[in-house]
Design brief:
The complex is a heterodimer of chains A (165) and B (371). Chain A is an alpha/beta fold and 165 residues long. Helix content of chain A is 19%, strand content 29%. Chain A has a five-stranded mixed beta sheet. A two-stranded parallel ribbon of chain A has the order 7-8. The chains are: A alpha/beta (165), B alpha+beta (371).
């Protein structure tokens, strides 16, 4: 099923929601979904016979300066051999997105990574801990406004310039 | 009268010979049987995705080597493909063939190392030594091709960095002629061994449903019975011009999706790679090895998600461009990361010694998990 058919099928089901497709100048098109409805939309995408997205290929967070964060879902169907990109946008002051771990078990770790590096708070996640960085790390490095601490547990995080030594 | 036992917590790793890199497992066990093994990753996190935002597009290529150092060619290729797609670049056909040759050679040595490591974790040192010996021969070929033995950076945006040196095809064909009987011998040596079969058959069974739900990719997915290969089903580069089969796990000694199946699928994939290489050497056309590339790379505003079949399976590059010289966001989705996430579930009720073979059979590479 191509992108336009997929979008119209989702719009048919969620007529009252603001679902907006966007095509970039180059590359792949994607769909915006309201952040508070992502579980409903993904449940539909998984269970609908025509769409049948059985695999969450990639989940990641993207900073959207200055005030927002995006969560991107790359869906894929082994059955129908088609894919679809979904995005939700939340504000940095309240970055809550419902966890989809129960729909796609792979989301457990991928959401932990997005929480760790971008700082999206996945509500309802069973084990939302940092995965890459130490538990006592401060900040979320993949945000554009991230300022690295000068030291971590007494270890310098900067290196002297070798040319000036 | 039963013996009283209590659950104990074991710390396996981060430095442990059988974790294949710096990974830690928190094992809860009562005697030999584990209640669970919780993986703790991140020890090798180098923030490659952040570096991708700081480097220019070309400058990031050597970092993709480090994302998966055992299969650097495949990692290079995926990144080059995603940038090319956003730039709208056409790649010379010779360059595409050179990429596939490099990628398949890399797949062979990545798989053979994994096979040797599985055998060694079971206690057989000989197959590992044999595997490393063959790997060295391919490393020599790689060195002839691009001057590097491990982190190649051979694939460049727009093509590859060098053409084949004179005599490369003859050298490679000679290697393949020796390597093919070696693989037959290897197949007799290891998977026919009774101890090997008993240690791997029926161990660490991943069902088809679990494999898809946990987003397992590549050989691990195929061993669970999913007939899916990106090279064939979402084809790219010159793969549509090449003939090959996709091996799938059949549960020949135990159940579909056990450690034995994952081992056999890798052996069969190596054989397919040999055939792919021979076809490439026969078909490769004359021409340029590097296409016309812009001096300053500024892709159009947009985003792209490109998946390629790396040695550890589907490697996804998600790139967002804001039209400047640097990427806005680079995301590398790797096979090892999702393979690790299934261990907690499958390890429940498993024997402690089987965990070692299970991890080895998944072929996880620590830097690829942590990036």
């Amino acid at each position: 099923m191509n992108f336009n058919n997929q979008v119209s099928r989702i719009k048919e089901k969620f007529a009252d929601l603001e679902i907006k497709s966007e095509e970039s100048q180059a590359g792949d098109p994607y769909v915006w979904v309201p952040a508070n409805k992502i579980t409903e939309v993904l449940t539909f995408l998984r269970d609908d016979e025509e769409l049948a997205f059985d695999c969450l290929s990639n989940l990641t967070g993207v900073d959207a300066p200055p005030d927002d964060l995006d969560v991107v879902y790359h869906m894929f169907s082994y059955n129908k051999q088609h894919s679809l990109t979904l995005k939700v946008r939340v504000s940095k002051s309240k970055p809550d997105v419902a966890s989809v771990e129960k729909l796609y078990p792979t989301a457990n770790w991928q959401e932990r990574e997005a929480y760790d590096l971008i700082g999206v708070n996945f509500t309802g996640h069973s084990d939302l801990r940092r995965i890459m960085l130490p538990d006592d790390w401060v900040g979320h490095p993949l945000r554009k406004d991230y300022q690295e601490e000068e030291e971590y547990r007494g270890i310098d995080t900067t290196r002297p310039n070798l040319l000036e030594m | 009268m039963g013996i009283q036992t209590e659950e104990m917590m074991l710390n396996m790793g981060p430095q442990h010979p059988s974790t294949h890199g710096v990974i830690r497992f928190v094992v809860k066990s009562d005697g030999e049987v584990m209640t669970e093994a919780v993986p703790d990753v991140g020890y090798l996190h180098r923030s490659i995705e952040k570096i991708g935002e700081i480097c220019e597009y070309n400058g990031f290529m050597p970092y993709t080597d480090r994302a998966d150092y055992l299969s650097a060619m495949n990692a290079n290729q995926g990144y080059a493909m995603v940038v090319e797609k956003l730039l709208g670049l056409e790649i010379p056909e010779r360059a595409e063939y050179l990429r596939v040759i490099a990628a398949e050679l890399n797949r062979i040595i990545s798989h053979i190392l994994s096979l040797g490591a599985v055998a060694m974790d079971i206690g057989a040192a000989t197959p590992f030594v044999l595997a490393l010996k063959e790997r060295e021969k391919v490393n020599d070929l790689m060195e002839a091709l691009c001057g590097q033995r491990l982190t190649y950076s051979y694939v460049r945006i727009g093509g590859v960095s060098y053409d084949m040196p004179p005599g490369f095809i003859e050298r490679s064909l000679k290697f393949l002629a020796d390597f093919e009987p070696f693989m037959d011998e290897f197949e007799n040596l290891v998977p026919e061994n009774k101890i090997f079969i008993e240690r791997t058959a029926g161990v660490g069974v991943i069902t088809r449903e679990d494999a898809i739900a946990y987003n397992l990719v590549g050989p691990n997915l195929r061993a669970s019975g999913v007939d899916w290969d990106l090279r064939r089903d979402m084809t790219y580069s010159v793969y549509p011009k090449l003939q090959f089969e996709v091996p799938v796990g059949v549960g020949s000694q135990g159940v579909v999706g056990d450690s034995f199946d994952r081992f056999i699928v890798r052996i069969k994939e190596i054989k397919q790679s040999i055939s792919l290489l021979k076809q490439c050497f026969a078909q490769i056309p004359e021409g340029d090895f590097l296409g016309e590339i812009p001096r300053v790379m500024k892709p159009a505003v947009g985003e792209c998600y490109v998946r390629t079949e790396s040695s550890r399976g589907d490697m996804g590059y998600y790139l967002i461009s804001d039209g400047s010289k640097n990427a806005f966001r680079v995301r590398i989705r790797t096979g090892s990361f999702t393979s690790m996430s299934i261990i907690e579930k499958i390890s429940r009720g498993m024997m402690l010694a089987d965990l070692v073979t299970f991890i080895a059979s998944l072929d996880v590479v620590a830097p690829e998990i942590d990036r």
